[in-house]
Amino acid sequence: MISADARPRRLLEWREEDGRCVLLRPRFGTSRPGRWLAGLAGDPHYRIRLDEVGTLVWKACDGRTSLAEIARAMRAAFGDRVEPVDERLDRFVRRMLKGRMIAVAEPGGPD
Asked: Rounded to an integer, what is the distance from CA 66 to the centroid of its chain?
C-alpha cells in the first residue's frame, strides 16, 4: 500500500463537465512529433470521464493533500458507499500512477 502521508498531484489537463472531471490524455504523447500529430488530428485528446468518487479524489490530487486527508473526505462525502475506503483509494491511485496520470510524493522526499 502507498503511504497515507503521500501527496498525489495531477499530471494531466482536465475540465469539469456536469459536476464531474474529464481527464484529457494526449492521443500522441507530449513529445514534439506527438504535438505535431495532435495538431493534425481533429481531437488531440482521449477523454477519461470520472465518476463522482473519482472526481473528488482527482480534485484533491493537488500535491498538498495527503492520501489520509483524501480518505477522510471520501468518507465524509460518501459514507459506507466507499468502504473499504483505504483499499479503494489505493487501487485508484495505483491505476493513476500506472497510467502516468498522477505523481505521488512522499513527505520529506523528492517529487
From this structure: 13
* Domain extent listing, the chain: 11-49, 51-99
Using CA atoms, how far apart are residues 62 and 81, in angstroms rounded to an integer? 24
- Only one residue has cell 483509494, namely 89
Alpha-carbon span 33 to 21, nearest angstrom: 28
The number of residues making up the chain comes to 111
pLDDT per residue rounded down to tens, the chain (111 residues): 789 999 999 999 999 999 999 999 887 655 566 555 556 666 677 889 999 999 999 999 999 999 999 999 999 999 999 999 999 999 999 999 999 999 998 776 655
Distance CA 76, CA 62 (A): 19
